[in-house]
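User: Fold this one for me? It's MFS transporter.
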Amino acid sequence: MATPVHEPVEGTAQPPRSRRALVAGSVGNFIEWYEFGVYGYFATIIAANFFTPDGGSDVEALVKTYASFALAFFFRPVGAAVFGRVGDRMGRRPTLILVICLMTGATTLIGLLPTYATLGAAAPWLLTFLRILQGLSAGGEFGGAVSIMTEFAPPGRRGLYGAWQSFTVALGLLAGAGIAALLASLLTESELNGWGWRLPFLLTLPLGLAALWLRLRLEETPSFRRARSRTPDEQGSPRPVPSAAAPARETARAIALGAGRLMGWSAAGYTFLVVMPSYLQSTLDATFQQALIATVLANLGFAASIIPAGALSDRIGRRTVMVAGAVLVAVLAFPLLNLLQDAAASTAAKGLAVFAAGAVVGLMAGPGPAMLAEMFPTRVRYTGLGLAYSLSNAVFSGCAGLIITEAVQRTGDIDIPAYYVVATCAVSTFALLTLRGDDHRRALRD
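Assistant: Here's what I get for MFS transporter.
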């Protein structure tokens, strides 16, 4: 049976409610990516403080730091499954409140954690445990945030509303880079390495409290309320018809396909936006300040293209915009990296190159959240899109730093980041081509 174009119920959500949902969904995502950005930008300092035993090399410490980074990502699917299940049964609002509390607490504690020099071998283990808690909370954040954004979105604007999820990724990473750059300019190297790196993590506490206040004022989505009204409960609500339940096999297939469609975005986004500072420092001998400036420019390009890409996908379709982004990233990966490696290239040319790299990643990130939301019915949307996103990020984002650093060390090939990005974007392109051209015009499935 054909799906109707634009469900009328979506349009009944009043603009103030939609805007509140947009802000409440975005703020937690901002905090999540702010912290992940800070951890990536301070990777070399964290390595020296937590992962360098007596006699250990700097490269060994950095690899261990990224292993802890990757471990947190591998707990994202667990968080997506656990919190997604709760969110699909109990509601988006209470689940997102629980998630922001866990995320804020774990990140704040990292800023208070004793280092290896103070606590010994227990320090890296405690850091890793807190990273696991962050991974669990981050896994529960995406599915709920995108669900409320897209389920509250007015007709014809799902791509634009969903794009705010990706936009706050850029804002979070930019905020992390900005704080890191500010501290690097205000503090001496010894101060930054000794205690200055803690300040960005401690800043999460007031941000988290503000996010909690916003989410306490959030209403439940119309889509969830409609689905809940057809679910049996203590009050004896009617039992749903059998065809309303999404078969497990269909959901698992959609999760795998969604992860494939996001593969290029995950890999390219983390390679260009988070891993780049450590790569520039450890491989191309850039200073900490130079690496941060390059990363800020890449994130500015990323932020500049996300909202326009999401809005454009509401007009011409998710498939067209996202395929264009994946292809452009693959085409530009080697020229970008070669330009950064060229000592004769001007600073302006390098800056423009990393800005452009971020912008083409934004073409995938803008329509991505809405594309995922459209793949799942309401009953499993929180779980399904959360798992697809977290699985893709666990494998292709969380492992990016570890894979690139280890591969460059073992092979001596400084083009490894480009190989990684091209391979993942090629696979992602084929998966994106399976999208229907009119998905953006169809109503979300209840």
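One thing worth pointing out: Residues 1-13, 233-246 have pLDDT under 50 and may be disordered.
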